[in-house]
Every structure is written in C-alpha cells, then in structure tokens.
Amino acid sequence: MQKKCAIDLQTAKTVAAAAQLEADSNGWNVVIAIVDDGGHLMYLQREKAQLGSIDVAIKKAKAAVLFMRPTSIFADRVNNGQPGYLEMPGIMPLEGGEPLEYAGEIVGAIGISGASANEDGIVARAGATAMPTDS
C-alpha cells in the first residue's frame, strides 16, 4: 500500500512565512490560510488585515484545493465572458488561491486575502513556491 502524501503543520508554517515575507516586502496586510487536501483549515495567520478577509482567504484556499487549480483561472474565465462559473458551488473567482504540491500530488492549498486580487495572487504564489520538493 502506497503512503499518501500530506501537508504537515511545519510545512504549512513554512509556506505561510514565505507568503508573509512577500506581503511585508510590499507593505500589504493580508490574511494567510492554509488548508489540507480535503479543504480543511490547518493554519491561519492575520495581522492588521480587515476581518472580512478571513473567510475570503479560507474560501480561496478551499477552492484551489477542491478544483485542483489556482483561483485566478476562474477569475479569468468569468472576466472573459463565462459567468456560468459563478454558479459552480465553492468557486472563488478571485486571484489568491494556489494549490500546494508535493511529489506530484496536491496536498493542500494557500489562500490570501486583504490586498488587491492581483496582489493576493502574488503573495499566494510566493507561498506556494516555498513548498519542499520531493528530492
């Protein structure tokens, strides 16, 4: 039986730290949410960001992991005249949600909210690039 890859709390904190570094370097106040491969919250970090961004960050992370793609894809499709995507349950058509991969498997996701959608995407991608590789 092959062991399933999973994100652990230390890895979630490493990803969040990389995201926070990017946000800090740009002066952006954000909420950082990390979910596991089932979309369940593992780690949440907020300092100086508005309270409304908490739920948005979690929903971005959950959408990224459940649909196995960055949430920016849905934003692009809606913005390019495909509003039907807004009817899909669990969709978050805003940048800022990125799947987290390890050894070719999606093991979780990061969601960012608090800055502009584009800035949230930049921060989320910075976090995602901090995922360890399988080598």
Gap from first CA to last CA: 21 Å
The geometry reads as globular
Low-confidence stretches: none
Protein structure class: alpha+beta
Strands in their spatial order, largest beta sheet: 2-1-4-3
Our count of helices gives 4
- At the fourth level of CATH, the homologous superfamily is Haem-degrading domain
Domain count: the total is 1
Based on CA atoms alone, the radius of gyration comes out at 14 Å
CATH C-level label? Alpha Beta
Largest sheet: 4 strands, antiparallel
Order of helices and strands: HEEHHEEH
Q: Do you know the CATH architecture? A: 2-Layer Sandwich
Kindly state the number of beta strands.
4
Strand content: 15-25%
The helix content, as a percent range, equals 25-40%
According to CATH, the fold-level topology is: Beta-Lactamase
Mean pLDDT: 94
Task: Please describe the structure with a list of short key phrases separated by commas or semicolons.
135 residues; alpha+beta; Beta-Lactamase; 4 strands; 39% helix; 20% strand; globular
